[in-house]
Amino acid sequence: MTMFGSQWLANAGSTYEIEQSIRFNDNDSAYLTRTPSSAGNQKTNTISCWVKRANLGTGESLAMFSAAGGSYGLTWYIDSSETDFSRERLSLSDGSSTLWQANDYRLRDPASWYHFVFAMDTTQATQSNRMKVYINGALVTADSNALVENTDYPFFDDVVNRIGSWSPSGGAAGRYMEGYMAEIHLIDGAQKAASDFGEYNDDGVWIPKAYSGAYGDQGAYLKGQDSSALGDDTSGNGNDFSSSGLAANDQMSDSPTNNWCIMNSLDAVGPTLSDGNLAFTDSNGSAWRTARATMAIPSTGKWYWECIAASSGGAGDPNFGIVADTVNTQVSDWYQDALAYAYSTRQDSVVNNDWTGTSRGTYAGGNVLQIAYDSGTGKLHFGIQNSWINGGDPADGSSPDFTTSTTLTFLPYVAIYNSKTGSINFGQSAFAYTPPTGFKALNTSNLDTPTITDGSAYFHTQLYTGNGSSGLAITNDANAGDFKPDLWYLAPRSNGDNHVVIDSVRGVTSRIYTNKGDAEDIDSPAQITFETDGFDLDTTDVNFNGSGRTYVAWQWKTTGGSSSTNETGDITSTVSANTTAGFSVLTYSGNGSDNQEIGHGIGIPPKMIITKRRNASGSNWSSYHDAVGINKVFYLNLRNAVASNTEQYRAVPTSSVYTVGVGGDVNASGGTYVSYCFAEVEGFSSIGSYTGNGNADGPFVYCGFEPAFLLIKSTGDNKWVIKDTKRSPFNAASLTLVANNNDAELTSDQPVDINSSGFKLRTTGSGVNASGVTYIYMAFAEHPFGGDGAAPATAR
After folding, report:
1. Which helix (H) or strand (E) holds 488?
2. H helix intervals, 420-489
3. From residue 160, how far is each of 42, 171, 237, 405, 407 by CA, in Å?
4. CA of 112: how far to CAs of 71, 77, 443, 583, in Å?
5. Given 2.60.120.920, 3.30.1510.10, 2.40.110.10, 3.30.1160.10, which CATH number is that of 263-442?
6. Rounded to whole angstroms, how far apart are CA atoms 82 and 591?
């Protein structure tokens, strides 16, 4: 399981439900406050809460809990860099000194819920035990811990205690929280563990559970269940908090057990987001400001949401609609792309690659714009004040404003200009109008249960350290249980050496190297054996088992190692396939003829194919990627740019075959080959492309899950970058291995944030984010996005 993860939660296999949260908008100076009538235990206490961050940015040191004392009060806060995105850390400070701090936790995923537990006991003699901090069930390692033994700290003291703001002694509130908070437990007199408030479900995801312990005299339990009194204490103590800057509409249905769509501040270009990322404004006026949502529209079903523009008539009033995840959001006018469909309040028009659009009724500022989209048919309807434009009816699908492709993934989006403002509601607040019959809101409880609920059943990353002695047995610690690999890709980390590939179809005695064009090596006897729960290293070869050296093994499962002869197509292949996970390993012999079809066994079209000739040196790893297309090629063992080539991949793969030409890297007469084929499976694998912007605040790439493994390659001349969440258990993922060379692991290279719904580039490095350059990627999930009753994905 990924440590320190925030959560996509959708019932999460638990019967315990959290029904609401409290939205804190920093523009409203919102917070909860209480001054206890008498002091509680200031040495031993616990704070537990779930937090979903919203607007992210530089200089936003967001206070979660505080108590008066010191120049800024004693405050738990997320401390962001004042100038860039290089720092994001969790701190306990009194303004003059830092009492506890973890420097490397980039807690900047607005699509997800984090669970925090701050557990203090200064009576402990051991320094590290005086403050225990857990993020999503995992104990955090502090970079500094200065709590003094047997010292009182003002949490639960009879001074001002605040939630969502700091509490400077004798001063005003500040450093306001921007986001959502739920299930707040304040425990007076006990140092609790994370397991008192949550648990791991069968799929390895941290989920909430009911707390059954005592609260102590000054403790409280805040659920936000009364919209008119969001700080009511339901522990039985009656220790109510009063609110400031909060209103009844700040009670939201968004919760850790039913996560709702909001606008994604990681996928926004310019607008200022507020009100829990449900409101937006263009404060500049000099360019279009755009943002997409945190949640894609599912590939099936009917979906509804509402929008409001503050004004009407005139350039720059908001466009509301949907846009494909393939659209390059770094282009200033992407909202006019052919795959962006929107109602524009400018000139009362609908736009789709046509600024003038077609006249559609009258929109007045403050009117409710309704959006209804049937992703099964591609029919998109707009309505104003419960009157559907163009006389359409979403319920029966008649007279839609647009009919889109049903094979693309779309996300809700907004585009604004000229200092305009607007808001959006996906249903976490009550809709103004009843959705059309059959239409649902965008939240995780309304998603279908995914086919794969635990990615570790089909893909697993294993770290290990060599001992330099034969007979080293490595047990895969996959959450799903025993994991016997069918494709095993080993990369040495601490010392440079070859990247080795072994698979169950060729047999464990046959190895090839991704960083070389060499022919296949044959080991006799086998140096590596695949076991039911891992693999054994019967070697002292330092490439696999050097004493004290560290390694990573990325592994995929097909059908448990069984293979069969596949006569589909022109060339007979031997295939081991996993149709559920969209992956196969196959071998074949070439015949030197053009346009030869080879059966891949997956049952859906592969989007990435990697082929290696086995019986000749100087043969490159020929690679096909859907975003690159046919009659082109690039090579896993080289950093070369994509090149035209009519001798290798000759036709778009089908659900049964892919087609090769006469090129020696794929089909020489007498040549023997192995191919690894990967298809996209919703919630488990994502194979696509993006365009870099050359900015440390790089593009966000939507996958629909948290990637456990990420492979990125520029279509230009650059290296093959590999990231994973085992080597980088928290953001930013800066540890890099390169498939096309044998260098040791790079420890601070091409940083990427891996989040609950995709990944965010955090570098100007040309390996992943040069301006205007197209990159291809392939990602595999730790957990799928989730659905009703299913395990959710995990992010950091």
Report:
1. strand 487-492
2. none
3. 14, 10, 18, 56, 55
4. 32, 18, 12, 29
5. 2.60.120.920
6. 62
User: In this predicted structure, which of 253-262, 553-562, 708-717 has the lowest mean pLDDT?
Assistant: 553-562
Q: Using one digit for the tens of pLDDT, what is the confidence trace for 143-193?
A: 899 999 999 999 999 999 999 998 887 677 878 889 999 999 999 999 999
Topology (CATH) of 564-678: Immunoglobulin-like (2.60.40)
Contacts of 450 (CB under 8 A, 6+ apart): 682, 683, 684, 784, 785, 786, 787, 790
Cα distance between residue 183 and residue 255, in whole Å: 9
**Can you give the residue ranges of every domain in the chain?**
35-252, 263-442, 455-556, 564-678, 685-795
**Averaged pLDDT for residues 239-255:** 97
Residue 310's pLDDT is what?
84
Q: How far is 370 from 382, CA to CA, in rounded Å?
A: 6
CB 270 within 8 A of CB 287: yes
Angstrom distance (rounded) from CA 355 to CA 296: 25
Tokens 């999460």 label which residue?
A: 12
Average pLDDT of the chain, as a whole number: 90
Element (H, E) at 583: strand 583-589
* 35-252 and 263-442: identical CATH topology: yes
pLDDT at 476: 97
Q: Angle CA(403)–CA(306)–CA(20) in degrees, nearest 5?
A: 130
Cα–Cα distance, 146 to 203 (Å, whole number): 37
CATH of domain 35-252: 2.60.120.200
What is the pLDDT, as a whole number, of residue 171? 72
Q: Is the pLDDT of residue 512 over 90?
A: yes
Say which residues have a Cβ less than 8 Å from residue 626's Cβ, sequence separation at least 6.
Answer: 607, 608, 687, 688
How many Å apart are CA 115 and CA 119, to the nearest integer? 13
CA gap 10, 13 in Å, rounded: 8
**pLDDT at position 13 over 50:** no
Determine the pLDDT at residue 542: 96
CA 648 to mean position of chain CA atoms: 34
- In the block, which residue shows the tokens 């990681």? 266
| Distance, CA of 732 to CA of 88 (rounded, Å) | 10
Read off the pLDDT of each residue in 195-203 and give the average, rounded to a whole number.
93
Report yes or no: 103 and 143 within 8 Å, Cβ to Cβ.
yes
Give ∠ CA 365-368-374 in degrees, rounded to 5: 135
pTM: 0.94
Over range 105-114, report the average pLDDT: 86
Tokens of 781: 């999930």
Query: Do residues 430 and 248 lie in contact, with contact meaning Cβ atoms separated by under 8 Å?
Result: no
